[in-house]
Amino acid sequence: MMGDFNIHVSLWDPSYIHHSSISNDLFVIANSFNLSLSYPTDQVPTRYSDNANDSNSVINLMFLCSDSSELNTYHIHPEWYLTSDYAPLIITIFITEEHIDTCKRTIVKNSEEDHMFIKQVITSFTKLDTSSISNIPDGEEVVSDFVDIVQYTWIKYSKLVNITRHSKLWWNNNCNHDLTSYRSSKSIKSWKML
Predict the structure, then answer these.
(1) Please, are residues 38 and 64 in contact by the beta-carbon 8 Å criterion?
(2) I need a surface site. Which of 4, 19, 40, 169 has the fewest CB within 10 A?
(3) What's the domain range around 165?
């Protein structure tokens, strides 16, 4: 969260000796979004006055994610303010390389595999021995066994599909049937079924 807050306070402007209660409200609002006041690498003004009677000031602020080691400071560039009254505030956000899976396991809704998956999970669940649960570790062991059953059954009945930009989650066997019908007849009626 950043911008011209137009609040003159000694907390961020050492040349200003007073404190404003408005800054307290600003901190409460920022904190509600898990943001903290960030401090620039160089303490220089953010607003430059074109009036010789007014002093330069710090009224542009940046609030960044609390407890973030990567996003905790920014730069003020007074040499870039040009015809504006304000110097730009610049932060560098590093984007780390991330692995994105291009495959996932899936079961088509209402398919035979879907029904078999649900049936086997229910059957396996009813066979779990829950009679000897007398403490938290015993309960956690039963839950862990159930998780293993679900994972095993999921692998058994799901299939691995590639995710592409052409993947259509809504496409099902009825769509295949309608498309085949249209391709064979080329009729307007078949086209409308699509």
Answers:
(1) yes
(2) 169
(3) 103-193
